[in-house]
Amino acid sequence: MKRLVLAVLTILLCVGGVASTYFLLDRRAPGIEVSGTPSLACDVTFDELLDHASASDDKGLKSFFIEEKSLDTIADNGYLTYVAVDEANHVSKKQVSVSVDPAMKQYHLELIQPLIFQVNETVKISDYVSLRNGCNQDVKDRISIEGIDYDKIGDYEVTITSKKHSQTEALVVNAEVVDLTIPRIYLTSDTASDTAGRYFYEEYFMDFVDHVEDDKDSETVLMNNVTCDYLDVLPIYESGLVNRAGTYTITYQVMDSEGKTSTAQLLFTLNAPRIVETYEEGD
Which pLDDT score is estimated for 23? Predict the structure, then answer.
């Protein structure tokens, strides 16, 4: 008899345990309620979009968020996805249409910095060019550049396009592939002119140097190393007088502390002086 009673009690305890476990377990996913149609405009944030919806769960909510990672993705899709996760890791999703400001989908390419690249180096074009919308917000995209050889020093006219938003107007600009480890001389102009029959000195030609750059040396150090060959090029007297008209190529050179050099040239034109004849009364 005692064994029978013990067996019945054991069965009752097992049934009770199973029943309590069944009722205690979280077997339902969270619920998501959306209020109205979310609007996406230039000044709207993720938090504001999230305010259009709410999530609830009878056993406790772990997280509630928007699945799309960027606002421009939502603008492209025309919808967003609300996601709720409860403490038992049950997941609910609700996709909702979004009213999108047209400016969010008006794209243009814009230079971030000049297209000057180090020869023989890999280029991350997104560091130089950005795709932006009508709200002037950066839009993630793959940007393509064509018409350039990164292994060859030179000047190039390049065409830049958006991969994802191919309808965006291409950007056609100039790019340079250079050796940034050598010093560079920048002149105020590539051409200049004056009148013959006057005196010229070094200070005159050094005024055409706008600035110099190097990857290591300061501009002060570099400026002390700039030379100009005007004495060898112009038909100049020891006094500095030049009285012969003509067009001459003046070459500037700079050397950095590593012994690397570069040059720049100025096309210099000397015009013949005007001769004004005077007449005395009675001639």
Answer: 46
